[in-house]
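Posting this for the archive.
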Amino acid sequence: MFNFAGKRPNNLGVKDGKLAPCPGTPNCVNSQSDNPQSKIEPLPSVAIADLKKVIEGMEGAKIIEQTDNYLYAEFKTKLMGFVDDVEFYLDPNENVVHVRSASRLGKSDLGVNRKRIELIRSKLT
């Protein structure tokens, strides 16, 4: 049996107000990125608790870590068990929620990470 989950990255979390940059492969989006390929708009400012409720209602989601201004979840695909790491950082200075969603394995995600963030955005409004 193949393991498509991969290992949990060790560069996650908020450092100096920033989420980890995307690795340069087209399977990651980050609202703090300057690269047009990975750039995505941040989410509107929302309580992490409200964001958690949305995430918990999504298929394959598992909350790993939560603080007052940070949420980290893993999303596992049903078919192959691929895992994506998804982070949310409530930035008090910019009054937005910065997001990073990245596949652990492979190069292309066929737009899955971007679509997931846009789905979460639509559920918050």
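The mean pLDDT is 93. The chain has one domain: 28-124.
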